[in-house]
Amino acid sequence: MSDLFPIYQLTEEMKVVTDRPKQLKGVLNKSWYEHPELGLCLFKAATSPRMPIPNVRNDWSEKVVYEISKLLDLPAARYEFALAWNEERQRFIEGSLSIDCLPSGFESIAGGDFLTNSIRDYETSYPSSYSVENVLTSLLQNEVGCPQNWAGIPGIARATDLFVGYLALDAVCTGVDRHPNNWEVMLGDGRLDLVPSFDHGSSLGGNLSESTRATIAASDFDPNLMKSAFWNNAGRVNPIQAFEIAANIYPDAAKIWLERLIQIDLDRIEAIFDRVPDERISPLAAKFAQDLLEANRDRILSNFERWGSCI
Questions:
Q1: pTM, whole model, 2 decimals?
Q2: What is the 3-state secondary structure (H, E, C) of 79-136?
Q3: How far apart are the first and last CA of the chain?
Q4: Is 234 exposed, middle or buried (0-12, 13-18, 19+ CB in 10 A)?
Q5: Distance between CA atoms of residues 275 and 240, nearest Å
Q6: What is the distance between the alpha carbons of residues 198 and 76, in angstroms, rounded to a whole number?
Q7: How many Cβ atoms sit within 10 Å of the Cβ of residue 218?
Q8: Is the separation of the CB atoms in 157 and 146 below 8 Å?
Q9: Between vectors from CA 271 to CA 270 and to CA 276, what angle results, nearest 5°?
């Protein structure tokens, strides 16, 4: 197919060192590059021998969720497919790149650090203190705004409203990895803004084995089998529950994001998957992910039928 998503090549000469080492943490190998067309970007390998389940890859899920975020008009870091030269292996390795979305002169604050400085006893009570309520409280109390370079949506005026949208994205995509270092606040020009959403590789069953996808229908997949990083009094919650908690706190924002979820045409979702190169995703992974998206959307809308104006 001629309309496949492009694959960008990153050479050893493009590699750079930055003052943001936290972004290099994680199971997958990562490196910063200065691409002549894309600018500063972070490469993440698609696979790693350190992954708990062998032979899984999540470069495709990074790209697909980014494309879905565009359908929702949700600010997210831009992801592209990439090949990066590995000097040790003397070959290019597959992965994804995310284009740096931090404006010049701004510094980023990881969510965990932000919560430590905003919520009493957050650090000593972690991980149970990592709750949707605490995140939204910290954003509200510190008057955090939306990204300045985001076009915006009517009715979404503050970071609290926008974070509800991040949780809506997680809910429909089964995004399980929004832990305290997978969202950030940026400081600059005398203000605090929420950083666009990033790091969605664990979404859409990206970390599931092929055997799991083959034996469990996505429509029957129990959401509680894939918990989010958020907690409530009963323990960790799944992504749909996390969105519901936020919706109870900010119902007006939730309605806006629900309306956008409803408007997503499943044919457009299929078109996104059709553009993923065959070597980046298996037919089974593509089918499971699309079925999971449809099942999640149905679950979310069913749970919110009490908001009849949205359905």
A1: 0.93
A2: EEEEEEEECCCCEEEEEEEEECCCCCCCEEEEHHHHHHHHCCCHHHHCCCCCCHHHHH
A3: 36
A4: exposed
A5: 28
A6: 6
A7: 20
A8: yes
A9: 95
Helix-, strand-, coil-residue percentages of the chain, each rounded to 5: 40, 20, 40
pLDDT tens digits for 203-214?
A: 999 988 899 999
Dig out the tokens for 189 from the structure: 């020009």
Supply the angle between the helices 251-263 and 283-303 in degrees, to the nearest 10. Answer: 140
Domain boundaries, the chain: 7-99, 107-310
Residue with tokens 């305290």: 180
Instruction: Give me the CATH topology for the region 107-310.
Output: 1.10.1070
Phi, psi (degrees; rounded to nearest 5) at 59 = -65, -35
pLDDT averaged over every residue in the chain: 91
CA angle (288, 289, 294) in 5-degree steps: 100
> CA angle, corner 20, sides to 15 and 21, nearest 5?
85
Structure tokens at 309: 């104006």
Our measurement of the distance from residue 19's CA atom to the centroid of its chain's CA atoms, rounded to an integer in Å, reads 23
Q: Pairing relation of β-strands 235-236 and 39-45?
A: unpaired
Strand partners, 278: none
In the numeric block, the tokens 């000469």 are attached to 13
Chain center to CA of 274: 21
Q: Are 82 and 89 in contact (CB under 8 A)?
A: no
**C-alpha distance from residue 3 to each of 272, 275, 280, 283 (Å):** 10, 6, 15, 18
Q: Tell me the pLDDT tens digit for each residue of 160-194.
A: 999 999 999 999 999 999 999 999 999 998 999 99
